[in-house]
Design goal:
This protein has 361 residues and is α/β, with parallel strands linked by helices. 27% of the residues lie in helices and 22% in strands. The protein is built from 13 helices and 14 strands. Strand 12, helix 12 and strand 13 form a beta-alpha-beta unit. The mean pLDDT is 97.
């Protein structure tokens, strides 16, 4: 890429916004040109606006620290300063839906971490290694919105990254029934142990809306484009329980799978070891190599040891064994604010840039 694209971050002071800023420092394709948040933060320097809430392990990048925070709702002003934006605002779902469509109608491509448009039939919801072909729906979306450049793309729920990538290579065996229990870190709620001391030495067996997303969103990922819309798959059948656990980062999943045609364990391991997608084929900057890593030790993957595999973009798997009720069971792990949030959105943007959907304004 001859010239870096100018990117804006909406919701830049929140935890996912902070992760976007951290991930984009030194990015070979993108430069941060705008940071924006709520009216309460607008007009302040980024350092002043985020204050003591900076949660990353590295300092605020010097190029961002003194930037003046914009108002995320001032679309016309921001649109003139960027080639595209990432969205991680903390607002009501209907407010987010309108805000994101308004950016698209202002001819700004938008890649969202939010859930507001995940069920919109002409909005691609992408795990780039799995359903990169869903980018083709963007042209239908642009026709609906009346835009030439502007569109919305979204990433799925963060917890899906710990098990859906493991199922995707096995689709040829017809996975029919999948039961999953996810053990989700507190950063998924935008919290640290300092801001949520109640989570120390505690487990909460409820995360609002998470189980519905975990059961519904994989069907869109495994769906296909029909008549200008993404038609959800009808199988596999998913059932999920989602539990908040006292880990800072990293979502783990215990997964049980029943197949129409049961593969051998060697079949599964071979498919996992060789799994890759267009991000790896295109050598995109954020693409992990390998995509999936299987660990042979009985006590792996572990959240603290393995969440940063592939700079937090790789998926680690382990404990594959036969099950007395289902065919197989295994454990998966992903970094929820990297692969599951900001990093996954950046990888999606890289793919959309490589495929010509995100271009200079």
């Amino acid at each position: 890429m001859n010239k870096k694209l100018k990117v804006g971050i909406l919701g830049a002071t929140g935890m996912v916004g902070q992760r976007f800023i951290s991930c984009l420092e030194g990015h070979p394709w993108y430069d941060i040109s705008v940071v924006a948040a709520s009216p309460n933060s607008a007009g302040k320097s980024y350092t002043e606006a985020v204050g003591s809430r900076w949660s990353m392990s590295t300092p605020i990048p010097s190029g961002v620290a003194n930037m003046t925070v914009g108002n995320a709702s001032d679309i016309a002003s921001i649109a003139g300063q960027v080639d595209f934006v990432f969205c991680a605002v903390d607002m009501g779902k209907e407010e987010i839906r309108k805000l994101e469509e308004d950016y698209a109608r202002h001819e700004v491509p938008l890649v969202s971490n939010n859930s507001a448009h995940r069920s919109t039939p002409d909005v691609p919801m992408m795990i780039p290694e799995i359903n990169s072909d869903h980018a083709a729906i963007i042209e239908f979306q642009r026709k609906r919105l009346g835009t030439k450049r502007g569109f919305i793309a979204v990433k799925p729920n963060c917890s899906l990254q710990s098990y859906v990538p493991a199922i995707a290579p096995l689709m040829g065996f017809g996975p029919k029934d999948i039961a999953v229990c996810t053990y989700q870190a507190i950063s998924g709620a935008g919290k640290t142990f300092e801001t949520w001391p109640e989570m120390v030495d505690n487990v909460i067996p409820y995360i609002g809306g998470e189980e519905e997303k975990s059961e519904r969103e994989p069907l869109k990922i495994f769906g296909r484009i029909v008549g200008g819309k993404i038609e959800n798959a009808v199988e596999p059948n998913f059932t999920a329980q989602c539990i908040r656990v006292p880990a800072s980062d990293g979502h783990m999943a215990a997964v049980f799978v029943r197949f129409a045609k049961k593969p051998s364990k060697d079949d599964i391991l071979s498919l996992w070891r060789n799994a890759k997608g267009r991000p790896q084929e295109l050598s995109l900057p954020s693409a992990p190599r390998p995509f999936l890593t299987y660990l042979e030790e009985d006590n792996r993957p572990q959240t603290r040891l393995d969440r940063d595999t592939g700079k937090g973009m790789g998926i680690t798997l382990g404990r594959l064994r036969t099950d007395s009720v289902f065919d197989y069971k295994f454990v998966g792990l992903s970094h929820n604010t990297l692969r599951g949030a900001a990093g996954g959105a950046i990888l999606t943007a890289e793919l959309l840039t490589a495929d010509g959907y995100i271009t200079p304004a």
